[in-house]
Design goal:
This protein has 336 residues and is of the alpha+beta class. It contains 13 helices and twelve strands. It has one domain. Helices cover 38% and strands 26% of the residues.
């Protein structure tokens, strides 16, 4: 009995993970302000190929959407980072209003055989002179390949992050003291770049995160439960894509896993459906209802019921429609 309860709890947790992931992009974009037109994702051409993780957010498209303009939560984002506050005061730049699009290519330690690095290109409105003056005062200026490159100290002593203007509306930031990876010619053939090839499948999305799955260790045991069958199934997932786009007043969020074979995908779909079923059963428990914040309970219950799990070839997708009612439920608690 104890084992079955533990298994049920794990199933509920894993089911919740899929739904919780749907909020990752939503939570990061729901408070961006002002409207602007949205071009295509050609900004991807500015970053080097071959990254195992790719992030793209079209803030201008989100700000222009009915979903954003009619959102119930209009509070600005509070960022306690003193460095950002100093940067804002010195340059007048505010990412909530001035940043339109951003693309990030990352080589995390767990996913890349080469040295860990991150490259970002952002598009928006920047005061070059003020940013130049701030960089000179708080970092140092280097000259690389005919460009002024601003260097700022990183998190660890001796580490540097480089920053440069590509044109009047685009800036680039690279983890490291050289901006060479960004200025090198980039291959336009997406077939040679697995992450960008997958980005083509979500070209209509306002935001997406694409990542290769790191190796799963032999002692993998979520919640203390070790299952060879579950480990084998998770190892079959090679890539995960989280994407979102506004659809009227709603936000459509898709979480897709790409398996090695179609048989693995069918097994994963069946497993997820079972987990979601257990998740709904778990929420019906009076103890669960009492232990959760009522708004969070209602939001999770609604999402679990509304989530659609489908399988096509090697891909399994969880599709969730986030409505204004769900956004109200998931908002900050009311102050009494």
């Amino acid at each position: 009995m104890q084992k079955s309860r533990r298994t049920l709890a794990i199933a509920i947790g894993l089911a919740a993970v899929g739904i919780a992931a749907s909020f990752l992009l939503y939570a990061g974009i729901r408070r961006i302000e002002t409207a602007h037109a949205s071009p295509s994702t050609e900004l991807l051409d500015e970053i080097p190929a071959g990254a195992p993780m790719l992030v793209y957010i079209d803030l201008a498209a989100i700000r222009a959407s009915s979903f954003y303009q009619n959102r119930p939560d209009r509070a600005p984002i509070a960022i306690p980072d003193p460095n950002y506050k100093n940067f804002l005061q010195a340059t007048g730049f505010n990412f909530e209003k001035d940043l339109d699009r951003v693309v990030i290519a990352a080589w995390p330690q767990a996913l890349a055989q080469e040295q860990k690095k991150t490259v970002m290109v952002a598009e928006g409105r920047f005061d070059q002179q003020k940013i130049h003056d701030y960089a000179v005062k708080n970092g140092k200026v280097d000259h690389q390949q005919g460009r002024d490159v601003f260097l700022f100290s990183g998190r660890n002593p001796g580490d540097w992050n480089s920053f440069a203007f590509l044109d009047d509306q685009r800036i680039a930031m690279v983890e490291g003291s050289s901006i060479a990876p960004l200025l090198a010619p980039h291959a336009a053939d997406s077939a040679a770049d697995p992450a960008r090839e997958r980005a083509a499948h979500v070209s209509g999305a306002a935001a997406f995160v694409i990542t290769r799955i790191p190796p799963i260790p032999d002692n993998f045991a979520p919640g203390g439960m070790q299952s060879q069958e579950l480990t084998s199934l998770l190892r079959s997932v090679q890539w995960v894509t989280l994407s979102t786009r506004p659809d009227g007043d709603n936000l459509r969020v898709s979480l897709e896993g790409e398996c090695q074979t179609s048989a693995d995908a069918r097994k994963l779909q069946s497993t997820l459906q079972t987990m979601f079923m257990f998740g709904r059963m778990g929420l019906e428990s009076p103890k669960t209802r009492q232990s959760m914040d009522p708004a969070a309970f209602e939001a999770l219950d609604t999402l679990l019921k509304a989530a659609d799990i489908s399988e096509t070839a090697e891909r399994v997708r969880i599709l969730v429609e986030i409505t204004p009612d769900i956004m109200k439920l998931s908002g900050p608690p009311k102050q009494h």
